[in-house]
Design goal:
Chain lengths: 436, 436
Amino acid sequence: MRPQVLIIGCGFGGLEAARALSGSGAADIDVTVVDKTNHHLFQPLLYQVATAGLSAPSIAAPIRHLFRRQRNVTTLMGEVVAIDARARTATLKDGGLLRWDHLIVAAGATHSYFGRDDWAAFAPGLKTLDDAFEIRRRVLLAFEAAEREDDPARRAALLQFVVVGGGPTGVELAGTFAEIARHTLPGEFRRIDPRQARVTLVEGSPRVLQAMPESLSERAREQLAALGVEVRVGARVTGLDAQGLDFVTDSGAERLDSRCIVWAAGVAASPLGRVLAEATGCTLDRAGRVVVEADLSVPGHPDIQVIGDLAAARSHVPGREPRPVPGVSPGAKQMGRCAAANLKRRRRGEPTQPFRYRDYGNLATIGRNSAVVDLGTPAGPVRFSGYPAWLFWLFAHVYFLIGFRNRFMVLLDWAWAYWTYDRSARVVTQRGQPGA
Amino acid sequence: MRPQVLIIGCGFGGLEAARALSGSGAADIDVTVVDKTNHHLFQPLLYQVATAGLSAPSIAAPIRHLFRRQRNVTTLMGEVVAIDARARTATLKDGGLLRWDHLIVAAGATHSYFGRDDWAAFAPGLKTLDDAFEIRRRVLLAFEAAEREDDPARRAALLQFVVVGGGPTGVELAGTFAEIARHTLPGEFRRIDPRQARVTLVEGSPRVLQAMPESLSERAREQLAALGVEVRVGARVTGLDAQGLDFVTDSGAERLDSRCIVWAAGVAASPLGRVLAEATGCTLDRAGRVVVEADLSVPGHPDIQVIGDLAAARSHVPGREPRPVPGVSPGAKQMGRCAAANLKRRRRGEPTQPFRYRDYGNLATIGRNSAVVDLGTPAGPVRFSGYPAWLFWLFAHVYFLIGFRNRFMVLLDWAWAYWTYDRSARVVTQRGQPGA
């Protein structure tokens, strides 16, 4: 019997693990990749779909197409809802049963509303293509409704956009909303001036882009302000409803009337973490992530590994304290490769190796011509911002896009958008009427 | 007071009318275009979105973007639900009121299930982007579900695709389904062979493409067969449910088990026809279309014109019997220009002119390298099929696509698809699980 490897989830971690499980040392393994959707999503550019700059197919590749030449990989579309660690099976939502000899769980993360799940209806997050379509719909329909609104207060609320959370996604969304209002839409409306739209970024901590050095956070804040984004740091959201949001700062409580609020504040591990905890007795951290061994396996279950955003993993560098791995795509990819390598080692009877995260740096874009970059090089950190950072960001993202065609089309779309200020994917389907 | 022209619907007819109402003889007119969606849709290529060949933004342009330089045109997104011909107002679904001095109704058509609206759930039609996404989802998820299905009968039903209706849309869909099964998907599945999929085209009349000369219908049937489509003519559908469809032919009753049925059989005028009939007492024909005067106005209401698929219009050529205008995009565009011209004539106190339809021919594509073309030229009809017809079809459609960028992107997408057999838009979002 050929050993059966089951990989749950085909984000960056799962994709990389499955890719590493072919060719040398793995040709006699059967790999099954199961995912809730039919596509691998290039999440770093998802905000561009949400802001009508890219169409969905530009950043989503059918999973089975990516594995078409890897004959030992079978792709299935389905949602795993239960795991039996002793019988070595996974149960799908519609009742199907998958057997495995080795399990790699790469189910990723979802939004967290910090216990206020009722807020989700008023402020969608951005993790899936459906999320992106919903945000695109709300943003474009807010302008449409404003064009038809005669009451000044209601019109102002329709033209008030709020992004909660000042991490990379929040910064990208807020910057792009401001760009749409200032550059894309003016001239197309007759009753309103889209430039009157207000974009507010609300962040609980004292600065945006917390993962960056303080100097780059400051650059990002300046660039956001130059694009016309109001940045409110140290602002804790206390209430959210269909009409707006409440928050408190040191200077007291405030209210913003808004019909379009986007949530980019909190991340929680996939519910599959809890499923795995029930099956194996493993520990979850406060964010619901599975606490794994140094080699990414579940304690007491060397045949189960957890990678990517679902893993509370640490990076092991000889002679240093283990450090937590940030929830970024290079981390997930590296874990995917490490999990595949350790699986092969176990099959050869060799000891597994601890995971070591290589940090190549950190970058975030803010809008047209603006970004911040923080690179770790052997010669020390290299930091820059503005136009050169934006160019660097652009080519890095296009380079890592999956599949030649997507890269090419995304570059074309951006070249077009850059010269014309146009955004090509401004399509809202009938399901979303203004106000609905 | 500048006269107010209201155009309801921005398909080919409405768009053309609004474009003609600017510049010479119309600069002092205010035009308002109201549409249920925010985009003009290039419907002749909608089947490509449904079959994952094109992304939605490639064939949909934001209406207000198209009119951005026409300063006398205001675009509103909204659905007209009532018309008052005496007070000269139109009421929107959410209560808004629009005043007009002249009304052009271009609300188009929708599917007709010949009184069996309960069939709609089992066999979606193709008129809007949402329809196209629904069909794309059903087709792709049928293959996904087949890959997970062990029972041979259920697997066969999942791999049986049925298109009801052998007009241009039905022929295009059936041909493209066969192409996907034969060329795009093989190699990507491990448990099924997508080439085993059956595509059946069910047509009630004795031949496909009834608007074409009989010789070209025969060519189309041959080309469909070569692509692997089973063509059943003279087949009347008698039943439709979630498991398949029943139909009768001269040889008796038959049943096809299928999980993916598409409806391309009937067209009915927009419900706005009935609204207009209540407001003006005008007559509707059997398809629900408004019977208009020779100059496209509503009898007794020279200030209201109906154009496009909603109009039961006739073409007036001096010295000949008036003939009905076919429901094709050139007809709608020509009516749009005629309505605008007559509106200008009325304002100058000149008599209006009857509508004359210029028939430049008829074309339909069947699949890769196959199409049929029937052109009317001063030297008589020119008919051809196969590869040259396909090239002709391709360039004609790209030429008429709205906006330079779309043309360019569509050509690129097609060039890519042609060389690789890949289809770039094979994305299904989570909303659509297999079986859901």
